[in-house]
């Protein structure tokens, strides 16, 4: 693996456990799996994770902050998602996604967006379903056991760990702000909740 092509040094990826999957896999995620460990956990290909994070950050950079929504039902990602929103100006729902936010214009909290980013397509499935009605592309962080139905871009990764999610949102924030020519002064550690 060529270190120069990575968004962060290889040891940062490994330290965060971004490549450690579950013991289960779905058919779509097979191409992203590097190997199975002796304990049964599946290991994702770090180069593929890096490539997809790069694609996701380029996709995000095509939109203004007000046109993007990040949804995270998984508690381990709340801190990272909120900090990501704070530094980029991108809206988020960290916690329960209120039904109809994207589809019911009579709601007080109604949002019009052009891109959705979900931390896990299973617990965040209601947001993904809403985007089908309004024809909005979806980027999803997917572990080895995630289905990829109705997703436009899958980023293979450990979408359950605090360190992994912290690193992912630090990378996305760094790349997004770089594309908008804005300063970014947060460290990876800032995104990892203790």
Q: Could you characterize the architecture of this molecule?
A:
This protein has helices at residues 10-16, 46-61, 78-88, 125-134, 162-179, 188-191; strands at 33-36, 42-44, 68-72, 91-94, 115-118, 138-142, 153-156. The strands form two sheets. A five-stranded parallel sheet has the order 4-3-5-6-7, with helices on both faces. Strands 1-2 form a two-stranded antiparallel sheet. By secondary structure, it is α/β, with parallel strands linked by helices. Helix 1 crosses helix 5 (162-179) and helix 2 packs across helix 5. The mean pLDDT is 94. The chain has one domain (3-191): Glucose-6-phosphate isomerase like protein, domain 1 (Rossmann fold, 3-Layer(aba) Sandwich), CATH 3.40.50.
CATH topology: Rossmann fold
| CATH top-level class | Alpha Beta
Q: So, CATH architecture?
A: 3-Layer(aba) Sandwich
Largest sheet: 5 strands, parallel
Assign an overall shape: globular
Number of strands: 7
Q: Give the count of structural domains.
A: 1
Per DSSP, what share of the residues sits in E-state strands of 2 or more residues?
Answer: 5-15%
Low-confidence stretches: none
Radius of gyration computed on alpha carbons: 16 Å
Average pLDDT metric: 94
Number of helices: 6
Helix content: 25-40%
- Widest β-sheet, arrangement of strands: 4-3-5-6-7
| End-to-end Cα distance | 31 Å
């Amino acid at each position: 693996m060529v270190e120069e092509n990575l968004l962060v040094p290889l040891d940062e990826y490994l330290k965060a456990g971004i490549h450690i999957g579950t013991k289960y896999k779905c058919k779509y995620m097979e191409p992203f799996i590097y190997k199975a460990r002796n304990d049964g956990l599946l290991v994702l290909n770090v180069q593929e994770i890096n490539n997809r994070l790069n694609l996701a950050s380029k996709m995000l950079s095509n939109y203004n902050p007000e046109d993007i929504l990040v949804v995270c039902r998984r508690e381990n990602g709340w801190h990272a998602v909120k900090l990501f929103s704070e530094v980029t100006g991108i809206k988020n729902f960290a916690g329960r996604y209120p039904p109809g936010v994207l589809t019911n214009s009579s709601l007080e909290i109604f949002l019009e967006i052009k891109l959705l980013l979900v931390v896990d397509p299973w617990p965040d499935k209601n947001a993904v379903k809403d985007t089908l009605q309004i024809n909005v592309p979806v980027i999803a962080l997917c572990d080895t056991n995630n289905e990829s139905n109705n997703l436009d871009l899958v980023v293979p990764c450990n979408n359950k760990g605090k360190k992994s999610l912290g690193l992912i949102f630090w990378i996305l924030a760094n790349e997004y702000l770089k594309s908008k020519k804005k300063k970014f002064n947060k460290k990876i550690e800032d995104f990892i909740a203790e």
